[in-house]
Design brief:
The protein is an alpha+beta fold and about 260 residues long. The protein is built from eight helices and seven strands; from the N terminus they run ββαβββββααααααα. α2 runs antiparallel to α6 and α5 packs antiparallel against α6. The protein is elongated and about 60 Å long. The N and C termini lie far apart (about 70 Å). The mean pLDDT is about 95. It binds iron/sulfur cluster and FE2/S2 (inorganic) cluster (FES). The site of FE2/S2 (inorganic) cluster has 14 residues, from loops.
């Protein structure tokens, strides 16, 4: 037998454009299934708004499987909501109680300006990645995978760092709006693997420089990022980023 449906109030940030001041609007929901996902609850709200001739709530989403990183929003003041290691799209309404008021806001950061309602512009993350978060392949085919033996521990740590989905929750949760956990995950993932070595120093320097230029804050060890990260990326990666950056700053010579 399915669990009884719930009555809830959702208080949603509505902002028609980047120039609009924005405000919270409350909506009563009478028939929310605990088995619904959070985004399905918003889908139903939007269907009702459309039926009434009102503007639906704009929110980003794509995979709805915790992979693409687009669905981030603040839920009751927590990035991606109250369940640890869970993206908004994988959050279920059973995490809330009948009678709750759920406050839903976009990420709040100067580097992620609001486009509309819950949708923010995360181009700044793309710009950090373009500064160095890649491995250049300048000639020939990709190497045969087994030609490069990788120690198991390094492979595991690189895989853990590679789990970052670029959602921006680390920035949203940080009191300084710092993207250090994101940058650290991207730098670590490649610094730990042989394929990442040729551009290792340049990568660390350029990605940190891009982060500074794009208006993000810096890390002062609050660790809110690790708590909010839906992929549970460890702040140990930030220590590794600091070592990578200092080593590169001391020895990198541009060619
Ligand atoms: S480190 Fe975590 S919170 Fe930050 S962008 Fe990556 S997945 Fe999202
Ligand atoms: S919609 Fe892709 S991670 Fe949530």
């Amino acid at each position: 037998m399915s669990a009884p449906s719930m009555k809830l109030t959702v208080k949603v940030w509505r902002q028609s454009s980047p120039a609009d001041k924005g405000k919270f609007v409350s909506y009563e929901r009478d028939d929310v299934s605990p088995d619904q996902s959070f985004l399905e609850m918003l889908d139903e709200l939007n269907l009702d708004l459309i039926k009434k001739g009102e503007e639906p709530v704009a929110f980003d989403n794509d995979c709805r499987e915790g992979i693409c990183g687009t669905c981030g929003m603040m839920i009751n003041g927590m990035a991606h909501g109250p369940v640890k290691g869970t993206t908004t799209c994988q959050l279920h309404m059973r995490s809330f109680n009948a009678g709750d008021t759920i406050v839903i806001e976009p990420w709040r950061s100067k580097a992620f300006p609001v486009i509309k309602d819950l949708v923010v512009d995360r181009t700044a993350y793309d710009q950090i990645l373009m500064a160095g978060g890649f491995v250049s392949i300048n000639t020939g085919n990709a190497q045969e995978a087994n030609a490069l033996p990788i120690a198991k521990e390094a492979a595991e740590l690189a895989m853990d760092a590679a789990a970052c989905i670029g959602c921006g929750a680390c920035v949203a949760a940080c009191p300084n709006a710092s993207p250090m956990l994101f940058v650290a995950a991207k730098v670590s993932q490649l610094a730990l693997l042989p394929q990442g070595q040729p551009e290792r120093k340049r990568r660390a320097l350029h990605m940190v420089q891009a982060m500074d230029e794009l208006g993000f804050g810096n890390c002062t060890n609050h660790s809110e990022c690790e708590s909010a990260c839906p992929k549970e990326i460890s702040v140990n990666n930030i220590s590794r980023l600091n070592r990578e950056y200092m080593g590169a700053a001391a020895s990198y010579k541009p060619v």
